[in-house]
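Subject: sequence -> structure tokens, single chain

Hey, anyone have a minute? Need the predicted structure for the following. Not urgent.
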Amino acid sequence: MLTKIKFAPGIDKQDTSVGAEGRWVDSDNVRFRYGLPEKVGGWQSLLTDTIVGVARKQHAFVDTDGNRYVAIGTDKFLLLYFEGQLFDITPLATAITGATFTFNGTTTVTLTTSSDHGINVGDIIRLSSTTLPGSTTGVTTATFDNTNFQVLSVPSSTTLTIQAATAGSASSGGSVTITPYEVVGPAAQSYGYGFGIGNYGGTITGVSQTTLNGALLADTAGTGGSGTAITVVSTTGFPSAGTILIDNELITYTSTNATNFLGITRGTNGTATAGTSNGQAHSDGSVTQNATEFTGFGSAVQASTVTLEPGLWSLSNFGEVLVATIANGKTFTWNAGAANPTGNRAATNTSGFETTNNPTATRVTLISPTTRHLIHFGTEETIGNPSTQDDMFIRFSVDEDINNYTPEATNTAGTQRLQDGTKIMGALVAKENILVWTDNALYAMKFVGAPFTFGFEQVGTNCGLIGKNAAIEIDGVAYWMGNNGFFSFDGTVNTLPCSVEDYVYDDIDTTKGQQICAGINNLFTEVIWWYPTASATFNDRYVVYNYGQDNAGLPMGNWYTATNVNSIRTTWIDSLVYPKPYATAFNSSNTGTFPVIQGETGLGQTVFFEHEIGTDQINPDGSTTALTSFIESFSFSLQKDQSEVFLAMRRFLPNFKVLTGNNQITISVKDFPADPSSATTLSPFTITSSTTKVDTRARGRYANIKIENTGAGESWRFGTFQVDLQPDGRRG
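Reply:
Had a minute. Here:
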């Protein structure tokens, strides 16, 4: 008796093996099209180069001449992809002139500045105007001039070390200009407790740092014998009372003024130097870190509100001008219409498109496409003072003037503070509104004209966004990932029933929500989220919602998942400016090749891929990595109307709509759906396009099927499973 076994589209991980009969339970690199499962399309590298660091944002745009660009923001750089090449357009900070060299006969070189350089370990600097000490051999000016270096160490506030390509003989002197790259942020997101956290922008408690202005002696309670205060360069960004960390000493304070910590108590939590009662001696310029939430050794760690967010970007367009904002940092522009545009860097003083009057600490920015306002979300109450950053505060420019934020009766600049939530998480342009998410709510921001310019309507609560890049919009509908579920907005906030919800949320690391990347693949009506699990530092899974495919009337939508390491992405852009989707993949173990960074270590590698090309992964060196895939069903009853009857499976008929190369089918037959001990596995049968039937010998009441490919050059779309069954007695 030839029996057809049909399966509903999508993956179901919510139901039991009995309740989900007729469903698929697991998959990898599989999508559903026309109700049938198929292997996803392949991808190929767009470049022979790989990118240094982890990409966190992509933005494609077109200039007035029809030239197409992709801006790529990483944790270290802002890059431009144009006509098959990468260009470094990362903004540079203020140059430090007159630094000197110290060579010690190795490749390690010390640079000394005349004042506090403000540079941290891992930062990228560019050297120029090199004059070497006259007695130095083994290096030339070309070793350093117009070369990028990663900072290896910061022995003090006026010294730093780099690694040269060759060793220079022991000597000191000379001169060089140091130009730091603007700091973006760390590669990954984490909770912090003050100690060891670098200052990557913003003024979050536990992150801020300054330096001592004058030596701190060991025999007193304060600077230079005052006994009452510790003098620093600035207390901006520090709490009004709290704890600071200098070297290895914790010091509490009860109040501050502009340059002093007051009411101090030294050597707290057992950090006083042995033989002293008041703490350690610290030299002028020592880093002074906000350690208000620091937990001492042997103390119970409390839940922290301090989050060290990864290096993120907001990227949008003001006409053909790229507007780029570092999360919790400054805003820069790059003009595609300028002369030799790829030779320019993004800057705050781009001619005609300055951002010198913009806020200097902003969580998210975007351009309103219809009104052409530059809007800052989670920004400063006082422009230019990052310590006034309010994570719920919004500021928007005058229309058509992205450098003017002064509200007047005759212009459209203004501000607004949202109420529901603790921080603005993200914003994007939808069909009729700008949608603004906090960590708890969704607001619709709409142009209303004078005198208010924009109106704000709260359209949802308990539906906050888990990360800045976890929301996407297509055809007037927004989709996003929250802290405890998936949502959509089409004028009304809707919870998306999800057949893999427990699978996702039982193992997601919500503390790394800012690393989540959402993307649209409109070629297949898919919304994709790549996310990190609890055991991963970076994204290691993805989940897909197919908004355009029928789900056979089932209530929990058409969802599928994947864990294949080659399929994980950190950014994605849809096929709008370019005919295919572009995406980035990160490998923390490899080293990128662009930009060239002397002494680079630990920054990782990003590969830039074009998707839906061929059947496999084509790497930057031209080699091929096989794209494997599988799908597996729940157990299904072999005999619907006689459950007590055992059946003999004599053969099955593979039915593929598409089959290129080989495919493997594995069948497991068992007595009970949830009893693996009773299972008999019919090991993988190799199927080709010419295979008409496969003979089998198995006996049972339930079975499940797994379809997979393991080699290169293979693709498939499955049809209907047919088995030849014969009654084989009843259970004794």
